[in-house]
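Dear support,

We are seeing what looks like truncated structure output for some complexes. This example has three components. We would appreciate it if you could run it in full and send us the complete token output so we can diff it against ours.
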Amino acid sequence: MEKILQITGVSKSFGGFAALTEVSLDIAPGERFGLIGPNGSGKTTLINCVSGTLRNDAGSIVFQGEELSRLPAWKRTRRGIARSFQLPRPFHSMSVIENLLVPLEYVGRGKLDEAHGILETMGLAAKADTPSNQLSQVELRKLELARAMAAHPRLLISDEAMAGLSGSEVEEVLKILFDLNATGITVIMIEHIMQAVMRFSQRVVCLDAGRIICEATPAEIVKNTDVQKAYLGA
Amino acid sequence: MGIPADLLLEAVIYGVLLGCFYAAVSMGLSVSFGLLDVPNVAHPAIMVLGSYCTFLVARTGLDPILAGVLLMPPFFVLGMLIYRFYYETFEKRGTDAGVRGIAFFFGLALIIEVGLILAFGVDQRMVEAPYIGKAFSLGDIRIPMRTVVAFGIAIVLSISLTIYLSKTFTGRAIKAVAQDEPALRLMGANPVRIKQWAFGIATATAALAGAMLIIVGPVEPGMDRVYIGRTFAVVVLAGLGSMTGTIAAGLVLGISESIVLMHPGLGASWAPAVSFTLLLLVLGVRPQGLFGR
Amino acid sequence: MKFWIASAAIFLLAAGSAFVVKNEYFFFAAYTVLLYVILATAWNILGGYAGYVNFGTPAFFGLGAYTAAVLYKAFALPLGLQIVAAAVMAGLLGLVAGMLTLRLRGIFFAIATIALVVIMETVFINWRYAGGATGLQLLRPPLTAPFESYIKMLFVLMVAMVIVAVAIARYIENSWIGRGLRAIRDSEEAAEASGVPTLKLKVFACTLSGALMGAAGAPMPMYLSFIEPASTFNLNYAVGALASPMIGGSTHWLGPVIGALLLTSLQQYVTVNISGEMNVLVVGVLLVVFVVAAPEGILGLFRKWKKSSR
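Here is the complete output from our reference environment:
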């Protein structure tokens, strides 16, 4: 089966610090993929390399058959990769709905009047005209996902969208991601909330100190001793 | 190259002296901008303020170098206050801080410059000392003693600052806060207080740099403009946060300027452009500088 | 529509005053104020909308002025074409400088723009044909009717240029380009992730901004009958262009207009009645005060006052 994303031998360093070393993984279209690992293991660095926020030093990143490494982030978004940010970055001078108009206009694969529909799906319709700097934490997370959705992605990367949310809020976000995946969008989820990752993912990869230490199904990965050691600390 | 060999040698020697002076002058900016990421375009203006303060103190008969050293504590306090204000007003708010932060320091530089004009007039001021006015000869080349004195101070300052940042606890904390603020917070240190301390040190070095400036030659209030180019060129060429890089970059700038200055076809009218051209080249070709992170 | 009606009315008023008002000093003073309105409006396209501070206004303005002067000296080019040529040259400078430095963070771009001023000034100090350090004298062409004096004609021309500059800024602000620039200002990373070609938009804003500043500079040599590097590349242009939107408000096209009108008038008053240095001090203090206490400028204060008085 044609893989939607093929990461081969990707490495990234900051000065002397190796954030990622020879990371390789494949993702199938429509898959629900989980990425876990302790703090500082390189998860966000990896998706920054995939989304284009950072350039990988070595290796290749092939999306839908096209090598991405040389492309700037905005071109990758137009090719179909969207991501939410771990610390939400709303366009704070704009209202909620205006935030969506930016990707709708610039990625251009949807129509401007879709913005309301997307807000409905995210449960933000009532706040459409609210200035985005007045939203609560969970609303900001939803806005991040809504904005990613407005880019009509084939691949959506959700970076710790549930961090710090309450149980029912986690359920809300999880349902949104399940529904998105049901429409055919491949989803990569980075999370620390284990029960969410395990319920959501079909496959899980664990990173530690910039390397993949395990790749398995959710049931298997929790039993893996290397993964347990990575989280509990050596 | 269009410049005769003996003139070239003199240019290089002079350039080395000048370069170390530029490096010392830029060290403060290396800390405040290179490490702390504060867009301190007012640094050269504060240095010129230091020059004028040295002028005032030296009028009591005190040696200018001593005056410069005595000015360091009050300038340290000034630096801490400025950073505190900047932090409370801009860094904390986060949002639109970038444009306004830069505009703030620009306004500050303007106020200092005009304040100096109002207080001292636009005429040049200078200081007197036993080592100013004399020169000694190295073969055919005459080296002004004041340049050597400034060079000496520069070396001492550079070494002291480098040692401080790598050997003392606070110094290392300053470098740490530049690299990984959250980790520092987890260790129980207060990043804001450390940054405040660092900015204070940076401003104190500006005071000493001001003393060196007025020793090397007369000063006038508008001098901060050309030094914006020189200090930022050095800091950017060095690579943000690298102290040793600052010395290397200072030398590059000093020697280039010196060669242009002594070149028969170019001369003084082209010299101010050297630092800025160097800056643009570095930004265009290798923005992380020679030793950048 | 309201905008165009108001603009037409202002233009007619201005043109009318050129025939009615006898005191020539009014037109000299108005020229300077109008010049700063254009510079502030142009500055705001990159500085206010996109959030990239430009200290290099004198470089673009000066290049425009010198382009006009040199072309006039060489070919006796009419003023209209001088303005076009000046806009093109300054726009090119914006394009090249932008492509080189807008990849970097805002502060590096800001410092690079200072470099542009010094380099431009150095080039023209050393260019004999353009007058070198001593400058170039220019003889104004004979005036064609209907205006009585050259300065009155320049005044009406500047009013027209203000309207054009503001119209362009207003159009950009309300268009999808404006939204993209605002996205860049709010969060450049999120803008990139949302498909905004950030570098292209920034370079566009820089080019347009530079071109408008160059166009504003073109009439200067004719205004003074003289041009020389030190006053042409004077930092005061950088200060005024930056302070006016910071004081007036940088998110809306009215901000730079209000800021420039108030600030330049105040500056003229202070320079004449107190001193040139005090004028710079006043601007510096106002800049710091507004940047610290009223980040949204006069427009922002006005909006808050309107909200609270409901």
